[in-house]
Amino acid sequence: MAGARARRPGRITEWRDWHPFRPPRGELPAKKGTKATPPPSLPAAPQPEPPPAPDSGWEEKTVARSGARLELLAEGGPLWEFTLGLTPATIGRSADCTIHVPSDSVSRRHAEVLLDSRGYVVRDLGSNNGTFVNEEQVTEAKLKDGDVVRIGLTSLVFRDR
Prior knowledge:
With 161 residues, the chain is an all-beta fold. 2% of the residues lie in helices and 32% in strands. It is built from one helix and eleven strands. The strands form two sheets. Strands 2-1-11-10-7-8 form a six-stranded antiparallel sheet, with no helix packed on it. It has a five-stranded mixed sheet with strand order 4-3-5-6-9, with no helix packed on it. The termini are far apart.
């Protein structure tokens, strides 16, 4: 055979055999049709023990419940919602407020919602048109799930679930 090439021994047949960044032989990915063996697992690290409970009669209490929020109402349902946390949330017309309500019936700093020992509380900040909870004017009121807070012409529903 004049034109046929003879196969030389030791010829490179796969890119894995010649690639400069080739992983060591034991870490090559499995070839098609063969079963790959998982790498040996490392022993689990020992877990540190929790600190002992204080002896002074102190009890652990949950300060904030997850899921407390105010929902802005629209005709078809809630338009948007704001999640409440540990810091007081101010409601007003000013862009500096946590909950910005761009309405002329809302004062610049109209009210705030804060968390105290009773739970979430809404407090009027001396607004012109007042703050209402369930259509009753308040200066400060504890909020329960489903309470409707009206600030000017804007209604917000308090959800605590």
